[in-house]
Automatic annotation (TrEMBL), chain A:
The keyword Ligase does not apply. SUPFAM superfamilies: Thiamin diphosphate-binding fold (THDP-binding), TK C-terminal domain-like. Gene3D superfamilies: 3.40.50.920, 3.40.50.970. This is Alpha-ketoacid dehydrogenase subunit beta.
Length: 323, 399
């Protein structure tokens, strides 16, 4: 057991994976000498060399396309996309090639590629640096999509993602990079599973990435008002751990899904549909969604108005309970 | 074995053919080389050039002093913005320090009807286009994502996505062609487009695609690449093995490298390229060889990846110092002029500061405006909810 940050948890996870498997290579912009703009790969080029920690030319499509080639040659590339909003030049390779090659080759070809994306807002950044674009990838069959929310999962989930023979889009909550926490001796269940972080009986809060902390704080505040909220960290967005969600909702009868991404066609929409289909008779209220609005991520001076916060989560909890 | 099966290799080679990426071509010195066009040496001496001298000779002393004023004011504005960021008034700033001549020289080569497509660092070009410098601060302060009408000064919004604007510039130029505004000989009508981008951007597929489109369409666009040697932490040789200006040849049009710290050379080379574009001779790739004296942005720490000795070399190539020397030795400007420009720079700095500080935050509901040109029910409903939600707090407060 050791204490570290989310960023350094990923670093140590990458290091462990690289020590274990010489085929693990990192590709990205500024990830070598600089250690990445968030310093997640700090020290890795020094220790593993330029052959394994590759400062690529400034070209996301190029990074992704060559990662595919390296995977075909037997490597396990871990790609860093510098910011969420910079992934789109690589989008074509991800959805048209990475996601489909296993299926097209009837399973002969595997694409064990991890695509690391720092995501979400709250850091006062300029345009394209605060987006939550997970739904685009979760909507694409053939990709697994996960998000870590704490140092323990950061450390272990990145290793699980690298070990997966499927391509994994690995979302990192950038505004929580420096949050500290304990890293335990082993992962909490396999990749693809959710985790109950706080037990409760009145309402289930479902979140992932940066919003997990917000929901835990909301549950704490609600407890002071005598309300018992269960908080589930989804951890995986494709697949979504239906079993964990349904077990909780069958207990509480109420669910609120929270994410920074726009609610319109977001992960919350899928969960709402799934819960309605699978646990309709257990529901005491409709599944509610708290998320970004159907607008481009706003200028940073307005981001606090855009991002779900404690008040908006509790407002939804109130509406759910009042139903 | 089927007929087309590849036979196994029977003779093994005795040598190890593994080539490490660490053995990539050696870092070239920061020298532009003999083919780099230079009209003013770093010492401020005029270098004769048979082809371009006439362009410089055409400039009045007033215009030449104007370049100096531009260089100084732009640097002062940039320094003020950096200071504003340090004091928390801007979230971020991308400094142009060191690149003033590349931007002023090219910006002043444009005509009114020409159109510029910038990155996020073209503060000097914006200045030359007549854009209010305070407008440039909005996105860095976080009050908007651009916030000016690109068509007012023919200066497009800053583009953060690396290289994307080179395609937009090319498409704009294709529109110019279809409007017949090329090669008419009417100097108020013939129009050229200039796309700004950096050395890092040349790696992006978009930039190569722009070169392809402009080449095959013979479009009136100048690709103006400011090679400032660094893409955040990655030096030039991580982006290219060949000099950047060599690329143009492969796309079927001329390329030229110019000393990006020499305002006269940049002006002359860019003017020539823009004139060629306007007259229907198609695109040109201009590589302005310069240096990013500061950090990539205020979020960056260059001490982590580059040595100060390199910065020192480039300090001696400062674009303003050499130009000032030349203006002085040729008697085109005197001490009074330089002092007046300095005073004007201080005034500009003060007024930019004052206007930045008084820049209001947008009203929260502004984020719902302009998302669509026509009303969209989802956004409209959310805006309504947003208003009610906030009103509920006010009611609570009133109670």
């Amino acid at each position: 057991m050791s204490t570290t940050t989310i960023a350094k948890g990923i670093t140590s996870g990458l290091r462990a994976a690289m020590e274990r498997d010489p085929k693990v290579v990192l590709l990205g912009e500024d990830i070598g000498k600089l250690g990445g703009v968030f310093r997640v790969t700090e020290g890795l080029q020094k220790d593993f060399g330029e052959d394994r920690v590759i400062d690529t030319p400034l070209a996301e499509a190029g990074i992704m396309g060559t990662a595919i080639g390296m995977a075909l040659r037997g490597y396990r590339p871990v790609v860093e996309i510098q910011f969420d909003g910079f992934v789109y030049p690589a989008f074509d390779h991800i959805v048209s090639q990475v996601a489909k090659l296993h299926s097209r080759s009837l399973g002969y070809v595997k694409m064990p590629i991890v695509i690391r994306i720092p995501f979400g807002g709250g850091i006062g950044a300029v345009e394209h640096h605060s987006e939550s674009n997970e739904t685009y990838f979760a909507h694409t069959a053939g990709l697994r999509v996960v998000a870590c929310s704490n140092p323990h999962d950061a450390h272990w989930m990145i290793q699980q993602a690298i070990e997966s023979d499927d391509p994994v889009v690995f979302y990192e909550p950038k505004r929580r990079y420096w949050d500290k926490g304990e890293v335990g001796e082993e992962p909490d269940g396999p990749l693809g599973t959710a985790r109950v972080l706080r037990s409760g009986t009145d309402v289930t809060l479902l979140a992932y990435g940066p919003m997990v902390k917000t929901c835990l704080q909301a549950a704490q505040a609600a407890e002071e008002e005598g309300r018992s909220l269960e908080v589930i960290d989804l951890r995986s967005l494709s697949p979504i751990d239906g079993e964990a969600i349904l077990a909780s909702v069958r207990k509480t009868g109420r669910a609120v899904v929270v994410h920074e991404a726009s609610t319109f066609l977001g992960i919350g929409s899928e969960i709402s549909a799934m819960v309605t289909e699978e646990a309709f008779h257990s529901l005491e209220a409709p599944v509610l969604r708290v998320g970004g609005y159907n607008v481009p991520y706003p200028p940073s001076r307005l981001e606090e108005e855009f991002l779900p916060d404690l008040d908006r989560v509790l407002d939804a909890v109130d509406r759910s309970l009042a139903y | 074995m089927s007929d087309n099966e590849v036979a196994p290799l029977e003779t093994a080679f005795g040598v190890d053919h593994h080539v490490s990426v660490a053995e990539a071509p050696e870092r070239p010195a920061h020298e532009g080389g003999p083919e780099m066009v230079q009209l003013l040496s770093p010492e401020g001496e005029r270098v004769p050039n048979a082809e371009l001298d006439a362009i410089v000779d055409d400039l009045s002393d007033e215009a030449l002093r104007g370049f100096y004023r531009d260089l100084v004011l732009v640097r002062r504005f940039d320094a003020e913005a950096t200071a504003l960021q340090r004091q928390g008034e801007l979230g971020l700033w991308a400094s142009l320090l060191g690149q003033e001549a590349a931007q002023v020289g090219s910006g002043r080569a444009m005509r009114r009807q020409d159109y510029a497509f910038p990155t996020y660092r073209e503060h000097g070009v914006a200045w030359c286009r007549g854009v209010d410098p305070v407008n440039l601060l909005g996105m860095f302060r976080g009050v908007n994502h651009g916030g000016w009408d690109p068509n007012e000064k023919n200066f497009h919004l800053y583009t953060i996505i690396i290289g994307a604007q080179t395609l937009h510039a090319t498409g704009y130029a294709m529109g110019v062609q279809r409007d017949g505004d090329v090669g008419t000989g009417d100097e108020r009508r013939d129009t050229a487009v200039i796309a700004y981008f950096g050395d890092g951007a040349t790696s992006q597929g978009d930039v190569s695609e722009a070169l392809v489109f402009a080449g095959v369409n013979n479009s009136p666009v100048v690709f103006f690449c400011q090679n400032n040697q660094w893409a955040i932490s990655e030096p030039n040789e991580k982006q290219t093995r060949a000099p950047l200006w060599h690329r143009a040849r492969g796309f079927g049009f001329p390329g030229i490298r110019v000393d990006g710290n020499d305002v006269l050379a940049v002006y002359a080379v860019t003017k020539q390229a823009l004139d060629a574009a306007r007259s229907g001779q198609g695109p040109t790739f201009v590589e302005a060889f310069t240096y990013r004296m500061g950090a990539h942005t205020t979020s960056d720490d260059p001490t982590k990846y580059r040595v100060s000795a390199e910065v020192e070399v480039w300090k001696h190539r400062d674009p303003i110092e050499r130009y000032k020397r030349w203006l002085t030795t040729t008697g085109k400007a005197d001490v009074d002029f330089f002092e007046a420009v300095d005073a004007e720079a201080d005034e500009l700095g003060a007024s930019v500061r004052e206007r930045c500080l008084s820049m209001p935050d947008p009203a929260p509901a502004e984020m719902f405006r302009h998302v669509y040109a026509e009303e969209h029910p989802v956004t409209a409903r959310e805006q309504e909810w947003f208003a009610e939600y906030h009103a509920s707090f006010e009611e609570e407060g009133a109670r």
